[in-house]
Amino acid sequence: MTFANEIPLLLLLLVTAAGAILVKDLMSAVLLLGSYSFTLSLVWAWLGAVDVAFVEAVVGAGLATVLFLLTLFGTAPKDTRLRRPPPSLTTLIVFPLLGVLLLYAANDLPGFGDPNSPASVHISPSYLEQSYQDTHTPNVVTSVLMDYRSLDTMVETVVIFTSGIACALLLRRQSK
Amino acid sequence: MALFVFWVLLSASFEWIHLCLGLVCSFIVAWINSGHSPFVPKSRLAVRVLLYLPWLFYKIVQSSLHLSKLILHPALPIAPQLMTVESRLNHHAAVVLFGNSITLTPGTITAEVDRNTLIVHAMDQELGEDLAGGKKEMETKIADIFRDVEPDL
Amino acid sequence: MTILSIAFIVAGLFFLVVAAIGVIRLPDVFCRSHAVSLTDSLGAFLMLLGIAFYEGLDKNTLKILVVLSLLYILNPVIAHATIRAALRSGLKPWRKETP
Amino acid sequence: MKTFLFCVLVLLVILIGVYLYRVLQGPTIFDRVLGLNGISTKAIILLIVMGLYFERVDMFIDISTGYALLNLVGALAVNKYLEEKGAP
What we know:
The complex is a heterotetramer. Chain B contains five helices and three strands. By secondary structure, chain B is of the alpha+beta class.
């Protein structure tokens, strides 16, 4: 079993996610989300994706927590209790079905770290071999993100920047 | 300067272009933040603080053992209390160092600082006594560190 | 060297476990924060010292020491901020019932 | 040594679970903040031990430094918020 080592971490992940949904207080939900992304980035680090772990820690645990807090600071009414309606019949049917479909589809994916899967046969080696000669960036992830896909990354950044400005405009406190 | 040392420690690469970049960055950050820091560290002060650290570590070990004994004790014999400690330190950095040392020592935590009066939450009577009596020692040491800095509080 | 580092790591683990027990057992925020500070100050110190011994002397060890000093500077700040917020929002410290 | 490090890793994950109990259970919001602080300290140690386990300490140290700083930012923001608004 390849995944035997990650099971405790994944259990923690499940517990934090469920807790963040089920907890009644918005503030506690924010804190639970913070610990969720700490755990998630531990999982990434365990799988060896250090860059993703770093981004997860910075964005999830640092930035998102502070942004959520700012939102709460600007908007939270006195009573922050959530009243959640019970799930409807359609939800109860559709979502398990969707989960089963996804699991069924995941059966066809190549195994984790399989050397014969299409991605690791011809795409990854060529990136790994040529990216340093092409771009002179020692980190392959950075070179893929910033050189091969630079337009994509730029537009992504523009989208995020725009939404950030919109949020800042909406959440601006009236100084009167 | 300290920022530059920090940069070198973090990047740990000694190619000169990285070093120059770090130098420029640390100067920019220092320039932006200049005028906010309440005190400019002097080298003799830093040496004295370094000499203070082993003693602090000894205190930390001592009170850690005491606290773990308290926690593992089946009857949980704790008597937490709030106490007010008035120090005679008259320097911002000295009070900060004092509060930080108190918090770092297990069993006592600084809860509120107002000029040089600290409200401290202590775990039990003995640790509290330590603060009133024994930590006069800590205060004396810190006052000794800051003895030739003019007071600003 | 390996034996020494294992000894340090085990000692650090002991303090971490004690702190976790304290976090579960102690009655209120103020007391629990003492347990957390126990972890931060001694447990982390011993663990990281053991790891640094195992690594030997190179730049990684230096970085471990940087992380350690960051922990030592930042964690009291966090503990103090938490306790101050708890105190200012009107939480009363737990007291043993005196008859 | 490898096995020993693995045991240390598992034990640290269990300790994170213990703190998580405090975060989930905590009667007041400050308990949760405290638990989060404990979790992130454990995560820093866990990352470094993990780096030792994979023998790539240089990569993992950087993340743990980032963790330590982010932890400070997050906890200070939470506490400022709580100080100004009062506990819910």
